[in-house]
Amino acid sequence: MAGAAFAKLLFLEAKRVQDPDGADEILVGRGDGGTFEKVRMRVGDVFEFDERFVPFVNQAPIDIILHEVNEAASQSSFIGGAKIIPSEVGLGERTQAIGALSLSLYELTYKVL
């Protein structure tokens, strides 16, 4: 059986936000560096990734991480991450909570193909 080729990111949903103005500026990226989305989200917002495919490298897990940007202070804080593993191939849509131990809680939905 061939290994998984990539994870297709589908949606990011905001369950809670931590910014006092009611919306978080979220940076979405890989754990090994590189940001590929910046999106402003309020509670209940669902961001749909536009054909975002993240390749597996040597069948190692993919870490997708979220940071919240504080524009006023020009800094960002780590919210949490999701670990996508190649053995999830063929299981259909999967959802992981991100940041469950902090004030924010996001849900990432994806497929492993």
Attribute tags:
113 residues, mainly beta, 4-stranded antiparallel sheet, elongated
List the helices and strands and how they pair.
Layout: E1 6-16, E2 23-30, E3 35-42, E4 46-55, E5 62-70, E6 75-84, E7 94-98, E8 105-112
Antiparallel strand pairs: 1-4, 1-8, 2-3, 2-5, 5-6, 7-8
Number of distinct beta strands: 8
| Proportion of residues in helical segments | under 10%
Given helix and strand content, the structural type is mainly beta
Strand content: over 45%
Largest sheet composition: 4 strands, antiparallel
Neighbour order of strands in the largest sheet? 4-1-8-7
What integer value in Å does the Rg equal? 14 Å
Order of helices and strands: EEEEEEEE
- The coarse silhouette is elongated
Q: Number of helical segments?
A: 0
Question: Which runs of at least 5 residues are low in confidence (pLDDT < 50)?
Answer: none
- Report how far apart the termini are: 13 Å
Mean pLDDT: 91
3D architecture notes:
- This protein is mainly β and 113 residues long.
- Helices cover 0% and strands 61% of the residues.
- It is built from no helices and eight strands.
- It has strands spanning 6-16, 23-30, 35-42, 46-55, 62-70, 75-84, 94-98, 105-112.
- It has a four-stranded antiparallel sheet with strand order 4-1-8-7, with no helix packed on it.
- A hairpin with a 6-residue loop joins strand 7 (94-98) and strand 8 (105-112).
- The chain starts with 5 loop residues before the first strand and ends with a strand.
- The mean pLDDT is 91.
